[in-house]
Design goal:
Elements: H1 2-35, H2 41-45, H3 49-68, H4 75-112, H5 116-147, H6 150-161, H7 163-173, H8 175-190, E1 198-201, E2 204-211, E3 215-220, E4 225-229, H9 232-235, E5 239-240, E6 248-256, H10 262-274, E7 279-291, E8 296-304, H11 307-328
Antiparallel strand pairs: 1-2, 1-5, 2-3, 3-4, 6-8, 7-8
Helix pairs in contact: 1-3, 3-4, 4-5, 5-8, 10-11
């Protein structure tokens, strides 16, 4: 009877004690979250209750397993398994706590900061810091797990003895990976590009959605995702429309007839912009920038507070100006000219060329303008 009750008491007691401690801790975190509504730290720490309970349960079982006298022939294997679970859950708990602290710090900074560019920069740095911490904790946890095996300790000693050769081989094999890793750190702390920036890469316009240590994701205007290595942004030129100030200047072109009322188009442009909420009121203008034999090129210059609004302003101005021209000034739209060419001054349509302007034939007789020269002599 004692042999049956002992393992039940040890294992069951560890599980029950884990649940009680976890429930009490979660209750305290909920009360702290309700009391301190200005910070989200306590609410974020509640996300770590599962790894927290795993750590408690694994630690209690690891410390009391010898008293349970259960599976005596597999005591070493069970103890090592509990140690591995304890190390893995502790690493999981550390990552969750670090993520909660970093996210709380970022939220507090974002509420106190009024500059969106600085907020995006800190957000980029924070996300990369969390990834670096997670990677470091994961590597340490895996190394600690391997060191629990005696065979791995000998292998580790032999690996350390040949660290120089392995370092050279690893450096050559992981050259691109290391380049992306350092490029990710350079982007995070060099403030080259941030999450939320509007960029143009390889002719594609979009918004930076995610930045990791190795790749960067750009969400295009049509909701596609372009994923590229972060080393691209440190080795090739790209457009960052959110760098410095998000204000932008846009251009709209029209090809109209030479008789188009340019001054009336300027007035209409001002009327369109006054009714367009996306226009920021900084500047506007309309000029003739080029001419062709059939049309002339008219350029409108407009401004907006960011890339999204400048797109709205441009399409609004283009559409309403074309609609106004077709309704009020249809002659100003481009058309194919099918009329006769204008004659020189003093020339009457249908009048023949004067004899003085015509050349004489080789035999002295005057040759009419339409008569071809004679070549038989």
């Amino acid at each position: 009877m004692e042999n049956l009750l002992r393992p039940v008491i040890v294992v069951g007691g560890s599980v029950v004690l884990t649940l009680l401690i976890g429930w009490a801790t979660d209750l305290l975190l909920r009360k702290a979250d309700a009391r301190h509504g200005g910070t989200s730290l306590w609410g974020l720490l509640r996300r770590a209750r599962i790894p927290y309970q795993l750590v408690l349960c694994a630690a209690l079982l690891r410390g009391s397993y010898d008293h349970a006298q259960l599976l005596e022939t597999h005591r070493v294997g069970v103890g090592r398994l509990l140690t591995l679970v304890l190390i893995g859950s502790a690493a999981w708990l550390a990552i969750r706590i670090a993520g909660a602290v970093v996210e709380t710090s970022y939220s507090r900074y974002a509420r106190a900061q009024s500059d969106p560019a600085r907020v995006r920069r800190v957000r980029t740095q924070v996300s990369l810091i969390v990834r670096v911490v997670s990677a470091v904790v994961g590597v340490v946890a895996v190394a600690a797990m391997l060191l629990t095996f005696p065979a791995m300790r000998a292998a580790g000693a032999s690996l350390l003895a040949s660290a120089g050769i392995l370092g050279i081989v690893a450096g050559v094999a992981a050259q691109s990976t290391l380049a992306n890793l350092f490029a990710g750190l350079q982007i995070a702390f060099g403030d080259m590009v941030r999450i939320g920036d509007t960029v143009v890469v390889d002719g594609e316009w979009g918004t930076v959605e995610e930045i990791t240590l190795t790749f960067l994701t750009v969400r295009t205007w049509d909701e596609r995702r372009i994923t590229m290595p972060v080393s691209y942004f440190t080795s090739k030129p790209f457009e960052n429309w959110s760098r410095g100030t998000p204000q932008m200047t846009g251009i709209v072109y029209w090809h109209v007839d030479h008789a188009a009322p340019v001054e009336a188009m300027r007035e209409k442009l001002r009327d369109i912009l006054r009714e367009c909420p996306a226009w920021d009121g900084r500047a506007c203008g309309l000029d003739v920038t080029d001419t062709t034999p059939n049309t002339m090129e008219v350029r409108a210059l407009v401004t907006a507070k960011d890339a999204d609004d400048i797109w709205k302003v441009r399409v609004t101005v283009r559409e309403q100006m074309i609609r106004w021209l077709s309704k009020e000034h249809p002659y100003a739209l481009p058309r194919v000219n099918t009329a006769d060419a204008a004659l020189p001054p003093g020339r009457v349509p249908g009048q023949a060329q004067s004899p003085s302007a015509s050349s004489a034939s080789p035999d002295g007789a005057p040759r009419r303008a339409h008569e071809p020269p004679r070549t038989d002599r």
